[in-house]
Each structure stands twice: as C-alpha cells, then as structure tokens.
Amino acid sequence: MIASPLPALVGRQRECTALDDLLAGLQAGGSRVMVVRGEAGIGKSVLLEYTAARASRVQVTWARGVEADMELPYASLHQVCAPFLDGVEELPQPQRDALRVAFGTAVGDPPDRFLVGLAVLTLLTRASETRPVLVLVDDAQWLDQVSLQTLEFVARRLLAEQVAMVFAVRDPEGQSALAGLPALQLRGLDAASAGELLEGAVGGRLEERVRDRFVAETHGNPLALLEFSRGRSAAELAYGADASSAPVVQGPVASRVERDFAGRLGALPAATRTLLLIAAAEPVGDVRLLIRAAASLGITPDAAPAKAAGLIEFGEPVRFRHPLVRSAVYHGAEPEDRRAVHRALAEATDPLLDPDRRAWHAAQAADGPDEEVAGGLEQAADRARQRGGIAAEAVLLERAVEVTPDPWPRGRRALAAAEAHFSAAAPERATELAAVADLYPLSVLDRARLARLRARILFARSRSDEAAPLLLNAAAQFTAAGSPLARETYLEAISATIFAGRVHGPTGARAAAIAARASGAPSSGSKAADALLDGVAALLADGPETAVPALREALDLLEHEELRTREATVRWLLLAPVALESFIHWAWDLHAWDTLSTRAVRLARDVGALGSLPPALIYAGGVHIHYGDFAEADRMIDEADAIATATGHAPHKYATLVLAAWRGEADVAAGIIEEARERAVQRGEVSLLGAMGYIQGVLFNGLARYEEALEAARTGIEHDGFNFTGLSLVEHVEAATRCGELDQARASLARLTELTRAADSGWARGARARSEALLADGEAADRLYRTAIEEFGRGGVVVEVARTHLLYGEWLRRAQRRAQAREHLRTAYDMFGAMPAHAFAERARRELIATGEQVTARETTPANALTPQESQVAALAADGMTNARIGAELFISPHTVEWHLRKVYVKLGISSRRALPDVLDIARAR
Predict the structure, then answer these.
(1) What is the rounded CA–CA span in Å between residue 330 and residue 53?
(2) CB environment 541-579: b (16+ within 10 A), e (fewer)
(3) Cα separations (Å) of 624 from 157, 597, 638, 876?
(4) Of 102, 260, 278, 534, whose CB neighbour count within 10 A is largest?
(5) Residues with Cβ < 8 Å from 743, sequence gap 6 or more?
C-alpha cells in the first residue's frame, strides 16, 4: 500500500500498543517477532508503516510481496538484506559462500536454504551491533517460497539479538504461512471507529442510518470504507447522486473493493491504462524498465491521471495503492493486451543482466507453443536450481512444458517439473505433472525416473509397503538402462520396506533384497553405497552370520569415504539411517553407531544440511543414552527439536521417548506413545509398533510394572520388522522371568541367542549372558551376571552395565548374600542416579533398604540446573570455542551464545568462561 502520513490510527489502539511494546522490547535489547494477520484492506500495511514511523534510532529494512506467477528465488530475501550486504565479507566462509550463490553473485553448489538462513541471521545480528534492526515484510504470502522459508527460519531462531521482525499476512491466502509464530489478528473496526473513519473521509456528519449501512456492508473494513466513500460528499452518500454511489453489497469485501478499483480504470485515458498494465505485469516495480517497455509500445508515460485517481505512485519502485489495484488492472485486461505488455517487457529486459525475468515475460507473451521460449525457461530453471530455488525451478519448468511444441522434450520437461515440485514439498502438483509426463514419449532412463518419483510420492504420503514394488520396478528399469541410479534405488526400496516395517511377504524387505542381489545392477559410483547394499541385502536374504562381516566392511568405507562435493555428502547422509539401523539392531555395535552418527552430525553441520541434521542428532543422542550420558543426549534431542521446528518439520519423538523410558517418566511418555501407536496403525508403519514395544518394555521394567512390560515387549517381538526385535527380546526375558512366565522367557532367550550369535560384540554377548542369568541358578547365574557386566562394559553400553548390577544385586539379596548385594546395588544406584534414570534408581534404592542399608538422597549439582541448550553452549565454550564458532555449530547467533553463557555463569556461580572446564568436570564426576 502507498505510504502516507500517519495520523492516529482510528480504532487500532490495541494493535498500536502491541507494536509499540515490540519496539520497546527491541530497544531494550531483545528479539521480537510478530505476524499481523487479516483480510485484504483490514489495515495490515498501515500498521507496518506505523511501526516503521515509530522506530527511531533503528535500522529498518523492508520486503514486499507481490502477487505474480513469476518465482524469482531469493528475490525478497535480497530486499531484506540489501542494506547490510557490505557485511557479507565478515560472515563465516560456509555462510558467505551460501549467501553469494543464493543471490547470484557467485557460482557453487546449490546452497542449503537453512545455511542461507543462518547466514542471514548472522548478517542481521552483526548489523544490530551498531543499531537495532527492524525487518518489515508486507504481503508475506506472496514472497517467493524460498525467501519466505528462509525468513521464517530466521524468525524462529531469534532469541537474544537486537532484531525484530514483523510480517503482514493476508488471510485466507496466507493462513498456513508462518504458523506458530506470535500473531496479531486484525478484525473489522467496531461500529463507532468505523463511523468515525467514514465521516472523516467524507468531511462531514452522516445520518446514523446511512453510516450504519455502510459500516455493516463493509464489515468495518477500513479500505472498503475509504474507497467506497472516495470522492463522495456526505450529502451524496446520504441521498445518492446515482446508483453507483452506493457500495455493491454482493460478494466478499475484497472482491467488491477490487471491482470498485476496476470501475475507476474505465475513466482513465487508454495510454494510462496501458501504462498501469505494464506496471501490473512487472512485479519488481522497476520504473526504468517500465519506461522502456512503454516506449516499445509507442506510449508516452503519463501517470498523472492514475496518480490523481489514487491508484499508483511512480517512484523507485513503482507501487500500487493496494494489491487489489494491481489485481484489478491485470485481470481486467484483455488477454491479447496482457501478451503485448509481456512482449514489450521481454524486449526491454537486458538478456545478460536479467535473463530469467526476460524468459518469463517471453513465455507470458507466447500465444502458442514456442521452442525458443521453452528453452529459455528451461535454462532459467537450471539457474534457479543452482541458486537453491527449487520452487522457482518447478514453476519455470512447468511453464516450459506449456509452451513446448514437440512431444519428446515436453515429456522430459514435465518429468523434471514433477521432480522439482516433489523436492519443493508440493506432492500434489508433482503427481499432476507426473501424469502429464506419462502421456508423452520418454527415454528408458526417464521412464525409470518417473517410476521412482511416483514411488517416492506414495511413500511420502503413507509409510506403507506399497511403495516398495514401484521402487523395485524403477530399479529394474535403471538396471536395464545401465544407470548408476539402479543400486541406489534398490537400497531405497529396501529402506522403504525397513521403515514401513515388514521383512517377509511379497512386498517385504527380504523380497526387495533378493531382487537387488539378482539384478546385476552396475556400480553406483560410491564404494560405500555399494558395500552397504551388499551387506543389507545379505542380512535380509541370508541372515546375520553372512551379513555382519559384510556390514563391517561397509562400515570402514562409510567412515572414511572421501566426499568431494556437497551432492556426494548429501547422498552419504541419505545412506546413514539404513546403515545405522543395521549396525544397531543386527551387529549390536555401539561403537559403529557412535562413529557413523558422529560423522553424520559433522557432515550435516559442515554443508548446512539442516534437513539431515535433526535425524543425525537423534541417532547421536541415542548413543549417549546408552553411554548413560542423559544430559548430552538431552542436549542433542533439544537441538534436533529446535532445528526441526525452525525448519518447519515435525520434531522427532523417538529419542524423546527412549530417554523418557530410561528415566522412568511415564507421564511424559504416555501421550506420545499413544499418538505414535495411532499413527503406526493409520499409516501401516510396523516399525513404529516395534519401537513402542521396546520403549514401553524399558519403561515398565524400570517401574517394576512387569505385567505391562511383558505385554509391551511381546508387541515388540511379534511385529514383522527389521529393527527392535532383539532389543524387545531383552526386555521380554526380564519381564517374563519376573512374572513367572518361564516358558516365554526361554523362547525369547532362544530367539535372542540366534539373533546375536553372529554379532560377536560386547553388547550382544552381554545381552545374551544376562538373559541366560535370569533363567539360571547358583554358580551358573553368578558367573553369567559377572560375564554380562564385563561384556556390556567392553561394548560401552553403560546403561546396561548399571541394569546388570541392579539385577545381579537383586539376585544376590534373594540368595541371602547381602554384603555382596549391597556392593552391586550401591553401584547401580550411583550409576542410575548420575544419569539420572529415576525409576531404575528407585528400584535400586528399595533393594538397598531391604538389605538394611541407609540411603541418602543424591545432591543436585549446579550443572543439573542448566537447560539442554545452556549445557551444550557451556560444553563447547569449555572446549575453547569462540562465540562465533559455537553459533555456527549450533545454528544460532553469537549474541544468543553470549546470552546463554551469562545465564550459565549465574547458575554455576562463576564469572567467566575460564572457570567452565573445572566446574563442568566436577559436575560430571558427581
């Protein structure tokens, strides 16, 4: 909306107070975010102008969305960053490189949009060190998609920076945008305020009946009140000079206002209407481009009549009074007039400086198929992809399909557009374009790509095993074409069945593995990927005795494979979950789990792959749970959840549940477990059922609710899944022996022995020995418990070492060997208390009391009072990292790092980071 002097905003005292409070908080040194929501014309833009006018001693930067079919990646983000681009050189190199590629000032690998987001966060934070920064974004629903996603990421990561962001979003078009951020919802003005605004606009008092009619028909919408009364006196409104003097009452308010704007266009000279149409067709508002296009059409730019009618302001940039004016101008024009204007804009656009915009205007000017235009759009799409603008790539390719004359290139472009839409999280549009591609001739390789895309869309919608046959079919087609994508797609098919959870049956993981082995598919080009496929296929087709040695060979390659490009790194990160599930559940190898998850976290951080970082952190957190370092696990889970939320993904609940189970927090776990169980049933995710069985087995065994543990663990061992069977068997043996169900315990022990024989790891041997001990007596039980403690220790599985001390102590007490029982129970109590695993510690405490020992409550160390984020920042600072490096590591700003450290110092009773190592070492020792 055109800026204007801002008198007191009628009827918006509440909203103005909220924005004044936001500015006060910013001036006081804090970060603030607000999303102003409401229908068209409700006053959002005016409130943003009010905020800008009130922001004294603040750096204000704007971005304004424009309704247009053209998608220029990062165009709106560039508007926001433009005043601060001198500071790009000061950014850490990965952030600097990502931002340069995104803005088209450098060439490189397509940047991860979240790494671009971190670069923008750092840029704004550093700019705020001189004066606070206020980012205002009007009509956010019309920003290019990647700009909106990036700004949302920044908004969700603000904490201690002197940066505020205020977005204006039109409803209902933007209802899903920026969901979950603090919102200020605008409604129509109340009757008194609306009447005051209306009478101020017409310059006189109105009869109450007339005023109330206008207010009711406009629903208190300020723009409607002003536009319907524009140029009319109080007398004309009261008595009606003609039929057009009254507002049209049919339809939504915004539609009626747009029709009112359209009605004013007819009174303008033809040349002025054409000038307005050029401005409406060019969303950037480049006045020099508009003048060149007008000259191409033989028009002398005369904006005076449009300015007099209050429709447009010709400055730098050109701005319409309201987006509804642009819409009325563009959609009210004849199609041939729109094409002529786009043709003039294409001719006026420099092909070297702005080839993408030129290609788009040329496409809009086309009145039929045109290969030259389609080729230009395809090249523009490739440039968008190189800059990380996947959504823009999809839109450009889709338009290229529409103007492609020949069937072969049309099918190929439709497929590429479908793949781009899927990558941009638009599966419905991807499905439609996949159907278009299927209508045209495709190469053998492209047919395979189409089959794989359809399988991926299906799997994304429902994690059922229906996608596996489609992926296997695609893999077979890749094999026939001699493509290196074949082995990758076979592994993807196996992965789909693993995470759907079914091993047996015609669509299970075993069938996929057999097909992969028999395919003769060529190498993927990655020795690690090829070795992993061989190992996983052997595991499913032959069993663990053959597979585990092959998996260990793959581990060495996965650990050391050199990754020279970002694309190679991203592909490695896609392999990691399958590899980890194999090593956890079949090789019982905690060290391999640690090695792979640590590398996954490091690689994801290094390339800024924030989509891959949360699951990598979750796997790494699982390692620390088994190491008994719950605080470190908590930090990793907390970071994963924060990044998932900031990037618009659902938090990963699995690790939260496992941690809650080991801590004995039944209240925390209950709701999440039920939600996960419902999801598993609805979506056919059998693996989730297995996970819930294991988790509840740990939880209820810890709480000594053995009947519930028995039932839960049975679910974990009966599901036809790839993972969690072995871990659930361990829980089932303990619960069954406690419930006196010895036959069930022996049956589970036999299965566990079979599953762990090939693993030959400390974890596997410890699990087998302890389960045997639970069913043994006398010297045999004594020996087996000691063996289990030793083997679990060798495997590094600290939580299981503690559990074995507890079970051994319980057995010794029942054998009347109280002194020895106290030794092991005290060890278990101390270990569980340090983690802390409350339920297991309580079991140990009760057993100690039963031996006659006095048990005192554990002291709470100051470090226990730190939040997970504070603990992580403190640990990195203690290791000698600077605030800037910690911020880059955790995807937060250096200001937020310093804010956390100040809180850490207060909680730990220290005054500087020099004291951190000693204080944290003391806390760990306790």
Answers:
(1) 31
(2) beebeebbebbeebbeebeebebeebebbbbbbbbbbbb
(3) 26, 11, 13, 17
(4) 102
(5) none
pLDDT 10s digits, 676-729 = 777 666 665 666 777 888 999 999 999 999 999 999 999 888 875 778 889 999
Decide if 673 contacts 692 (C-beta within 8 A): yes
User: Which of left, alpha, beta for 740 (phi over 0: left; psi -120 to 50: alpha)?
Assistant: left
Q: Which residue has the tokens 């007039």?
A: 337
* Residues 6+ positions from 142 with CB-CB distance below 8 Å: 65, 66, 67, 68, 323
Query: How many angstroms separate the Cα of 630 from the Cα of each of 655, 844, 923?
Result: 11, 18, 13
CA 825 from centre of chain: 44
Q: Which H or E run includes 183?
A: strand 183-185
Instruction: Give the span between the Cα atoms of 836 and 828, in whole angstroms.
Output: 11
CB 35 within 8 A of CB 109: no
User: What's the CA gap between 282 and 318, in Å, rounded?
Assistant: 10
Phi, psi angles (nearest 5°) of residue 313: -130, 120
Buried b (16+ CB within 10 A) or exposed e, 875-903: bbbbeebebbbbbbbbbbbbbbbebbbeb
- Centroid of chain to Cα 834: 34
**Strand partners for 163:** 133
Report d(CA 545, CA 534) in Å as an integer.
14
Q: How far apart are CA 82 and CA 748, in angstroms?
A: 65
Contact status, residue 306 vs residue 321, Cβ threshold 8 Å = no
Give which of 117, 116, 166 is closest to 137, Cα–Cα.
Answer: 166
SS (H, E, C) 906-919: HHHCCCCHHHHHHH
Q: Rounded to whole angstroms, how far apart are CA atoms 843 and 703?
A: 8
> 305 pLDDT exceeds 70?
yes
Q: How would you class 817 by CB atoms within 10 Å of its CB: exposed for 0-12, middle for 13-18, buried for 19 or more?
A: middle
Please choose, from the candidates 216, 218, 196, the residue with its C-alpha nearest in 3D space to the C-alpha of residue 206.
196
Q: Nearest 10 degrees: CA dihedral of 312, 318, 321, 323?
A: 120
Q: What pairs with residue 183 in β-bridges?
A: 35
CA distance 377 to 613: 33
Phi (first) and psi of residue 809, to 5 degrees: -60, -40
Structure tokens at 435: 């159907």
Identify the CA nearest to 222 among candidates 255, 271, 186: 186
326 vs 281: CA distance, rounded Å = 9
Question: Is the entire prediction scored with pTM above 0.85?
Answer: no
Rg of the Cα atoms in the chain: 33
Distance CA 612, CA 898 (A): 27
Closest by alpha carbon to 77, among 59, 99, 97, 60? 99
State the Cα–Cα distance between residues 587 and 761, nearest whole angstrom: 7
In tens, the pLDDT along 408-463 reads: 999 999 999 999 998 887 889 999 999 999 999 999 999 999 999 999 888 877 66
Structure tokens at 731: 């829980």
Q: How do residues 872-913 score in pLDDT, each as one tens digit?
A: 888 888 888 888 888 877 777 888 888 888 888 888 888 778
